[in-house]
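Standup notes
- DV: blocked on the single-chain target, sequence here:
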Amino acid sequence: MIKIKNVVCRFGNIIAVNGISLDVERGEVVVIIGPSGSGKSTILRCLNALEEIDSGEIIIDNFRIDKNQKDIHQIRLEIGMVFQQFNLFPHLTVIDNIMLAQKVVRRRSKEEAHKKGMGLLEQVGLLDKVDVYPEQLSGGQKQRVAIVRALAMDPKIMLFDEVTSALDPEMIGEVLETMKMLAVRGMTMLVVSHELGFAREVADRVVFMEAGKIIESGTPEKIFDNPSRPRTKDFLNKVL
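- DV (later): unblocked, structure below
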């Protein structure tokens, strides 16, 4: 589903992503962990060309991203992305936030977009918030609305960029439960997260990054219980 080949991404003299190669299978959940500044979020942003790669290539469902920025529109239709900050439109109600891109990008009728949004809100337990504005929601509720907005576009892949890091601890669980639901249903997911319990429970594979490189990759059991690289062990000893 995703093929990342020797990708390099620079910001001036800083190499944020340094020759990464990674394949993600259809239906696989891959969680990327590592210290701040290791390139985790940058590689996610490269996947839908929010950041331009300097070399290498990314192929998503047979569409290619390279330095020439080919197939960008088609690729973005395949990908849903949820950020640390919710990025909801404050002047729109919950349902209008969810309907907007469906109408503009997917060319759905108002009725179709409304039906899709209502169904997804029901699934995440937010049907009672349909007509409220973002400022009336908790952080966890805002993030679940952001997830629904992405899902309403019928993506084949979901990218999550540290979506719980701005939340109070008591709000984190409800967002993770929504993500677990997607994993159970077979959504292809690439997740940058500090929630190692979530990674252990839900991930098919855990990737540890540092200094723009993949240091180690494997099943949750291998990475958390028997890491082979000293740097991975050192990191986990500090955070577990």
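- Follow-up: The two ends are 31 Å apart (CA to CA).
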